[in-house]
Amino acid sequence: QVQLVESGGGSVQAGASLRLSCETSGYSHCMGWFRQVSGKEREGVALIATDGTTSYSDSVKGRFTISQDNARNNLYLQMNSLKPEDTAIYYCAAKHPFAAPICEMGTPFAYWGQGTQVTVSS
Question: pLDDT above 90 covers what percent of the chain?
Fold first, then answer.
């Protein structure tokens, strides 16, 4: 069982930065951040594997950075140069420990946090 609790959302102006945090418990070989706008499908934002390999959606590449602390107890998403289109509920997620060792967008994630709202105004 992996438990996830996000924090760090808020309301900012376009161009500002925010850092989201996700306190994690339990092991997973792949963790990530997703976001969802009301009425739209949830989309992958950034992933990080156990070996440190990261991947990003094209819409955030170069602006967002995913990272973990050394103990892998906390997952972070540093968001810079925020745009109004980044407004969404952001979720932390983890793959099941026994899932196939693939850390890619579009593959199933078993555990989800409760979400944190990020609002970017122009």
Answer: 88
